[in-house]
Amino acid sequence: MQKKIPQRQCMGCRERKAKRDLIRVVRGTDGNVSLDFGGKAPGRGAYICPNPECLKKAMKSKALDRSLEVTIPEEVYQRLAKEMEANHG
Questions:
Q1: Closest C-alpha to 9, from 41, 49, 39, 40
Q2: Contact 87, 81 (CB under 8 A)
């Protein structure tokens, strides 16, 4: 039997994709927001495609802020943009 691939929805394009293809943004139990590349950090997570267009859409609609129920610091968005350029540019 084939193992089921976990699916998550991108906060930018709203498409469902394989969890491992997305970047996880997590609000930890301490309230700090960070990027979680292992996908195992405790806290509330939201996912975004490693695509600058999706990041722009998510920032404009404040989808990540709503999903994590917190205001996302500017440096988290900047770090996401840098990661996307480095890994997928």
A1: 49
A2: no
Q: What angle do CA 34, 37, 41 make, to 5 degrees?
A: 60
Cα(31)–Cα(4) distance, rounded to whole angstroms?
31
User: Do 58 and 11 touch, CB atoms closer than 8 A?
Assistant: yes
Site of tokens 């968005």: 77
Give the chain's length. Answer: 89
Report pLDDT digits (tens) over 53-71: 999 999 999 999 999 999 9
How many C-beta atoms surround the C-beta of residue 71 within 10 A?
10
Prediction pTM value: 0.90
